Prior knowledge:
Blueprint: H1 2-28, H2 43-46, H3 51-71, H4 74-83, H5 85-96, H6 99-103, E1 110-111, H7 112-119, H8 123-134, E2 140-143, E3 146-148, H9 161-170, H10 172-178, H11 180-185, H12 196-200, H13 208-215, H14 217-234, H15 237-241, E4 255-257, E5 271-275, H16 281-289, E6 294-299, H17 301-314, H18 316-320, E7 324-328, E8 342-346, H19 354-365, E9 373-378, H20 389-392, H21 411-424, H22 431-440, E10 443-451, E11 454-461
The structure holds S-adenosylmethionine.
Amino acid sequence: xxxxxxxxxxxxxxxxSSVDYIKREFRASGQAIxxxxxxxxxxxxxxxxxxxxxxxxxxxxxxSAQLTTMIAPPQYTLSNLSFAHYYSACLNVVNTAKVAxxxxxYPEGLHVSRLAALTKLDGNQLARILRMLAIKHCFTxxxxxxxxxxxxxxxxxxxxxxxxxxxxxxxxxxxxxxxLTDTLLHPDPNFGNGSAFSRGLNFDGGGLWEFxxxxxxxxxxxxxxxxxxxxxxxxxxxxxxxxxxxxxSSVPVLMFNLAxxxxxxxPDGTTVCDVGGGVGHVSMHIAKSCPQLRVILQDLPxxxxxxxxxxxxxxxxxxxxxxxxxxxxxxxxxSPITGCDYYFLKSVIHDWADKDSKVILTNIKxxxxxxxxxxLHEFLIQHIAPVEGEAGRFFTRAPEPLLANYGDGRAFEYYxxxxxxxxxxxxxxxxxxxxxxxxxxxxxxxxxxECGQMNSIEFKLAGAS
Length: 465
Ligand SMILES: C[S@@+](CC[C@H](N)C(=O)[O-])C[C@H]1O[C@@H](n2cnc3c(N)ncnc32)[C@H](O)[C@@H]1O
């Protein structure tokens, strides 16, 4: 009995000390913690998050969830967990009906009857959907039946990349998730690409990428925007800014470095090929931050067409200087441009099962020169149970009594893992899985660079110096 009382106190104390730290960071930013009713952006929303602030946020998330689960009756917690898909369902309704857009010009709120007329939804049903979301602080009910945008819902505007990400997750991915049980229990590898996505979308012509190209280019365009939103969620700033970290590892060969990848200190003329780079928002950020680099963006032809418009509008100077090349590729069938100094793949390998990943990585390996490096920018999945010994030294273990991987504090990575399972028959991987994948393709791990929530995993050709 004593033990669990102590655990509860430890969780409260972890929350308290982490919140103190978070308050100090907000004070240092010169602005207060925003009210949940606010629709204004706070500097800490977009600026790079220090590794220490990230750790404090993970602790507060993880400890709060663990604490409420400890003290609430399990049947209540489990039922709420089982209901959770209705948040996705409600978000899908408000995204599709563009509710946030309709509220844009009414900061003081709009009565649901007027909102219903604008969205062509039933007022009573819409009010209930908005109330459901408002208990999670997405939208606010200002006075009874009068709703307004707030800190979360403002990101659901239809021109917001994070809104596009929400659209993707609550639409295509939601349908894929609903078909996961059938797909796992009664697999049919001959329908589509055998994924829950093919089954959920009733698409027999392949997987996600074929669906966007053959059936629904509009959703494909939203996917490209959603990837920009994903960059905002994981703050891809961390890829180039370099975050300070308290992490320290004594592992001899596989060293963790203490900063983001050092793109800034690469020599003049260094070439970076962003393979499967989408419209190129990450490589554009790298190119803007590091004027000495030359960027080659490669993706499917239809995506490269989008990329041309994006770069022309957002980075005309880099286009005019000829510092970027936008080239189509099918990385399952061909190698990227040969002899680049770096091949950079963010959130690409997680879309593919091991068999296809090996085809992609081998195609890249065949393009590499002896001094080339491959950077896989991905999440690294950790076991929930503490990992002892050598392998365990790669990860920061959360303070007890938290789950060793921070539990809910790192939920995004585990959502993403199941999302990859459902939508692409694929997965987020552990470091060991990446090492084996690389080894099978003639690639050798050099280092793992910690870059906020994600990691840059650096490989070289096996045996190269
Ligand atoms: C998850 S997105 C990642 C995009 C970008 N790297 C990012 O992190 O924002 C995967 C990318 O792989 C591209 N892709 C999928 N299949 C491809 C193929 N066969 N050849 C080239 N690119 C492909 C998609 O078009 C998409 O842009």
